[in-house]
Structures are given as structure tokens and as C-alpha cells.
Amino acid sequence: MNHEWISKYAPYIYFDNNEPFFPVRVGVTVLEEAGPSPSTRRSFEFEDPRVKYLIEYAIYWDYDIQHLYELEHVWVYVGHDGEVVDCDASFHGRHFKGLLRDRSNLVDGTHVKLYSQPGKHAFLPQADMFYLLPDLMTCTDENAGRRGLLITGPFDGVYSTDDETNRLVELYLKTLRFKPSMEFTEYRIDPSLYVTWPELHAEVPLRIKDRLAEIRQQLGGVNR
Questions:
Q1: pLDDT at 159
Q2: Which of 26, 29, 136, 199 is in the most buried spot, having the most CB atoms within 10 Å?
Q3: What is the torsional sign of CA 179, 184, 185, 190?
């Protein structure tokens, strides 16, 4: 994997100043023809003749403030002359355009500037848009941990959870509850985090197992 080339088009992510979680791996896939994403329920048609290929960044965190396991995506569409043609960014199982119409959030020519929802990590190109979310402040505070150990599409049948595991995850995440500052600082993905999607897919269950062991150790003396 050419980390220098992957880094050239990687998004610049802006995290809330009170954010407790940061990416731990990024699974990268390059698509050059129509077909499905390997890591989420989405397909690409390549209908825009300007697009030569797209880079899929599957960005993995060990935690969302409401659950263990978090995977969000950024798709950068690259043109035949190397320009950024477009960008999409995931938002709670869906996606929005990541590149503003006037391209004003394209930094250094090839890096799309995206804001990460505090604690939840869904992406938007403007921070003020988060204020449209009714639970912006409550999901990171009183509702922390409520979804336990999450299982989503790419990992259906790969691992499982139960009520006790979900209670432990919720109890742990409640110790990290916070109120967003809504002030953001730039974060650039360290090239050491890049892996292929198959490598990330194989690593995630192992990371979940390790995080659960750490949680049980930390909460061992806590009266649940």
C-alpha cells in the first residue's frame, strides 16, 4: 500500500476539543469500476466521466460514546488529472456530500475538511449543521453507552453480544460521558493507521475481544 499516495487524498478531520475517542485504524480500498463497497452497504456506478477512481477510507474507532465498535466512511472521487472531483461522507448509516458546492472545504488542493460529530463520529462539512440534531448534547452525556456492543453489517455473524456484555459496555462508557465544546481541532490521519479492508475486517473482532477484557478488568471491583 502506497501510504504517501493514500495520505495525499485523506480527509482532514476536525474533532471536538472534548472528544475522548480517535481513529485506531483506517481500512483503505481503491475502486476503479462500478461495484459494491467491500465494507458497507453501498454501491458505486461511476456515472461521472470525470472520475478515474475513488478511494474509500473506512475509519475505525474502538468506541463511539454510545457503543463499542465504530466504523465511518469517507469516499474521495479522484479525476483523471488527479483533482478531487467529489467527496461523500457517512452519517449514521447514510451519507452526505462531503465537499461543499463552492469547494471551500478543500484544503491544500486534495484534502476535504470534515467535522466529526462529538462522540459519535458521523461526518458533516460544516460544524453548525450538528445543531440540527436533537440529541447532540444528550447522546454524549446522559445517554452514553446505551447501545452496548454494536453489531453492524460487515460483522454480522463474526462476533456476538449479550445483555451482560452490553451492561458492562454501557457502564464503562458512562465513565467517559461529556458535553461537547463545539470547538474543533484539526486531526490528520497518521499513515501508520492505514491497512487494507481485509486486514481491518480481520482485526476488528480481536480488538473488540481485547477491549472487553480491559473493561472487565477495570470494572471488576464495581458493583453493577
A1: 86
A2: 26
A3: positive
